[in-house]
Write a structure and sequence with these properties.
It is built from 23 helices and 16 strands. The longest helix is centred in the C-terminal third of the chain and has 32 residues, at 638-669. The chain has three domains: 7-264, no CATH class; 286-507, no CATH class; 517-706, no CATH class. It has helices at residues 38-43, 63-70, 74-81, 132-136, 167-179, 196-201, 222-231, 254-257, 269-293, 305-335, 342-352, 358-383, 397-401, 422-432, 440-445, 453-473, 543-556, 572-575, 583-608, 611-632, 638-669, 684-687, 692-706; strands at residues 7-10, 20-23, 28-34, 45-58, 103-119, 142-160, 205-211, 244-252, 390-392, 408-414, 481-487, 497-503, 506-507, 517-525, 528-535, 565-567.
């Protein structure tokens, strides 16, 4: 409710004067009207001198720190945040927020007062209003009865931190430097007796200035700040004519004539603190995201910046909306007959149930920090050995293709971004479509790809193979090869790394790392092929040697990820001469297929006869196949089992033929066959001399390795 006493309020740069009406419900000045004529106000004004000067060092940068430095009380904090107050002069300091955590900030406050003006008590007596009708309009709740004049100034110093500097140490050193400003000798120009270390320290120091003084140019360096600080007392003028209102005293209007009290409800300090904390949390998250967006590694992986930029934009928009809501609700709640603070509490509850919940935002940002750290470690692993000559580039695909200085460019491309950023999508829908997040529980359980050990293992394996490949090929080709790490994009979100070869400006469809082993087989059982790996020597540039080793090398292609043991049933023609395949497999396969055909035929004929006969035939056929099971060790279970077995056998037969044909086509289409540690290639003109039987055998061995 409205107070029975006078209220002190800081002006925040607003043009107060004695006799002005003020509405505390909206914290607004009622300009252009007064309850008394100007002459009467002048005759009833008392002026007292009140000279004082003080300075203070402000170490924090939170809104609470700024509010305390400006003298803002709790009731005025929400009005300032809600945009009800258009601050000016030194009060603009409240809107200056630190935009990075990679800097330390200290603020020097200069404050001075000159005089105090007030209205006499006789002038405020009942029945002495010159314009009482203004009082009846319910335009205002208070009238200005006292004003303190003076001026304030804030020097905001930001010191950028280098990677090897401690924030606490720099903060302490900066505080020592700022403490020197008021103590410099008062002799003409400011004399700065600084050591070389202090001068180097000040090189990365920036200064911003907010004041009630009128200046043609604000200081931007430490030296300029010292010079201006010494000039501030003279800036008020000889008769303090440049002083501005700093603080006012407000007198309740209902005490002037005894009429009904204007209701002015105060918002509880608990609710005020909660709203301020929410806005501060959002600002802190924006600063972290902005710092992450400026990370040097993202200059090469620009697609990773976009989610962070969208995150900052969504938070900016929400902050504006929240402040607008506060600005609209405050006058209503302060002037309401009943306590309606619950409306502001509802705003906080909605935020807690929305995608803008603090815990969800922090988790998303923490994961992005982990992703950037992981990306940095990947890049450092690739580039720490300068002899490998691996470069990290942000060039587009067209720029890479246009590089005519290197015939062959090998790109290790990473795709680190997720195609679907569910949190950002939910934030957008909440803001613009008034939709809450869908399947929120399921999304919370989704882990990012970089928390999957298997995927990280695959990336590490690619990195190591790329480094080995670069080490073997960077020096023997007289610089014709170039090795690049860049950012890529492809539809398969499960694949996070890919090696792409650009040769003479064109992208090759397939590139597979060469292997360092040749495989030999020995029979483990009649239906298994065991592959032993052994070292295989490097090919040379000699064409004859390439041709001589071609038949061996073609079998080695694309073997690094194969399993050592495999089982497969195949037709006898394709398996002749292949080590590890027993002839009994083929015989058993043929007999097995014939039995399945007979069983399925019996079952089909039975289905055409009456139902009772069907069951009789079914059980007879089942009995027959059970006998076969005991004597031939076939795992059949009735005619139904026969159909299943036959279908599966037919499928496996067809699948083998398909895979064999596809493998042969791949070998014919792919012209490049890479050796162990060389990028020398076997072209299509060499491949024509390969023995067709060896090619066929390579296809069969490859098929055997695919199975099992």
């Amino acid at each position: 409710m409205a107070s029975e006493k006078q209220v002190e309020v800081v002006t925040l740069g607003r043009p107060f004067h004695l006799g002005m009406l003020y509405d505390m419900r909206s914290d607004s000045l009622i300009t252009g009207v007064t309850l008394w004529n100007p002459k009467k106000l002048e005759n009833n004004t008392k002026i007292n001198k009140q000279p004082s000067t003080d300075y203070e060092i402000i170490t924090g940068d939170s809104f609470e720190n700024k509010a305390h430095a400006l003298g803002i009380e709790a009731s005025l904090k929400l009005s300032l945040l809600g945009g009800l107050i258009n601050s000016a002069g030194s009060a603009k300091y409240a809107d200056d927020h630190q935009k990075t955590n990679h800097a330390t900030r200290l603020t020097l406050k200069y404050s001075t007062t000159t005089h105090f003006e007030q209205l006499t008590m006789d002038h405020l007596g009942k029945g002495k209003l010159d314009y009482p009708d203004l009082h009846d309009r319910n335009l205002a709740t208070h009238v200005v009865t006292g004003v303190v004049y003076g001026a304030e100034a804030f020097f905001v110093f930001d010191r950028t931190l280098s990677t090897n500097e401690s924030k606490n140490e720099i903060h302490g050193a900066l505080k020592v430097m700022i403490n020197k400003i008021p103590k410099f000798q008062n002799e003409g120009e400011a004399k700065l007796d600084l050591t070389d270390n202090e001068k180097r320290f000040l090189d990365n120091l920036n200064c911003k200035f907010y004041s009630d003084f009128s200046l043609s140019e604000n200081p931007s360096t430490f030296e300029e700040a010292v010079k201006l600080y010494r000039q501030l007392p003279s800036r008020l003028g000889q008769n303090n004519e440049n002083a501005v209102p700093k603080k006012v005293w407000l007198y309740p209007l209902h005490l002037l004539d005894g009429k009904d009290m204007r209701i002015v409800r105060q918002i509880s300090s608990n609710l005020t603190d909660q709203l301020i904390a929410v806005l501060e949390d959002y600002h802190s998250l924006k600063v972290k995201a902005s710092d992450l967006r400026r990370n040097m590694i993202l200059t090469h992986f620009s697609d990773m910046k976009k989610p962070l930029s969208d995150f900052v934009d969504r938070l900016d928009e929400l902050q504006r909306d929240l402040k607008e809501q506060i600005g609209k609700l405050l006058p209503q709640l302060r002037g309401a007959v009943s306590n309606e603070e619950s409306k502001l509490f509802d705003v906080l509850k909605q935020l807690d149930l929305s995608p803008f919940k603090k815990q969800d935002l922090e988790l998303w940002l923490k994961r992005k920090e982990n992703l950037v750290a992981l990306t940095t470690s990947f890049v450092e692993s690739l580039t720490k050995d300068r002899d490998l000559n691996i470069t990290v580039e942000s060039s587009s695909r067209s720029n890479i293709i246009a590089d005519m200085t290197h015939p062959r460019i090998f790109c290790l491309s990473f795709r680190f971004n997720d195609e679907n950023e569910y949190l950002l999508e939910d934030m957008y829908n909440y803001r613009y479509k008034n939709q809450t997040s869908k399947s929120e529980e399921n999304r919370q359980n989704l882990k990012p790809w970089f928390e999957d050990g298997q995927i990280k293992g695959q990336i590490h394996a690619h990195i190591e193979r790329f480094k080995e490949f670069a080490a073997a090929n960077s020096t023997i080709t007289n610089g014709s090869n170039k090795f690049v790490v860049n950012e890529g994009y492809w539809r398969d979100s499960n694949k996070r790394v890919k090696v792409i070869l650009y040769e003479n400006g064109s992208e090759k469809e397939i590139f597979i790392f060469p292997v360092k082993a040749a495989c030999g087989g020995n029979i483990c059982s009649k239906c298994k092929l065991c592959i032993d790996w052994s070292y295989y020597g490097n090919l040379t540039n000699d064409l004859e040697q390439l041709r001589n080793r071609q038949s061996d090398n073609i079998v080695n292609k694309n073997r690094w990820h194969r399993h050592p043991n495999a089982t497969c049933i195949a037709d006898v023609d394709d398996l002749v001469g292949v080590v590890g395949v027993h002839t009994a497999d083929v015989v058993e396969f043929i007999f097995y297929s014939i039995i399945c055909i007979i069983g399925s035929t019996v079952l089909c004929i039975s289905a055409l006869i009456f139902l009772p006969i069907f069951f009789i035939v079914y059980f007879i056929s089942t009995f027959i196949f059970l006998l076969l099971h005991f004597f031939r060790n076939f795992h059949f279970r009735g005619a139904g089992g026969a159909i299943y077995r036959y279908t599966r056998a037919f499928y496996r037969w067809q699948r083998f033929n398909y895979l064999k044909g596809r493998q042969l086509r791949d070998l014919e289409r792919q012209e490049l066959i890479y050796d162990v540690s060389s990028d020398d290639r076997l072209g299509a003109d060499h491949a024509v001399n390969i023995d067709p039987n060896l090619v066929n055998r390579a296809a069969i061995v490859d098929h055997l390795c695919r199975c099992g």
